[in-house]
Design brief:
single chain; 88 residues; 56% helix
């Protein structure tokens, strides 16, 4: 999946999960500090990402995620490692 398309899909998941309506979500946006997500919001978003792309993200991997770009990078890597993963 193209990175730009994936970024848009992740942004759409964020918008749906939080009832927000961001047109653009830059890669340097901090999920907690800039978007104001709490731990429950982050878990909910991660669950949506896992369901949408049929991937599993470990707690160790998620501990490295701070920004939208970090999440995007992680999903890209997961999708490349498991060609069977795809958007639902």
């Amino acid at each position: 999946m193209d990175r730009a398309v994936l970024s848009e899909a992740l942004r759409d998941l964020y918008n749906e999960d939080t009832a927000d309506s961001l047109d653009v979500l830059s890669e340097d946006v901090d999920l907690i500090a800039d978007l104001g997500l709490d731990s429950v919001d982050v878990v909910s978003l991660i669950m949506q990402v896992e369901r949408q792309f049929r991937i599993r993200l470990t707690s160790g991997e998620l501990n490295q995620v701070r920004t939208f770009g970090d999440l995007l990078d992680l999903v890209v890597v997961k999708l490349q490692k498991d060609p069977g993963s795809r958007a639902a």
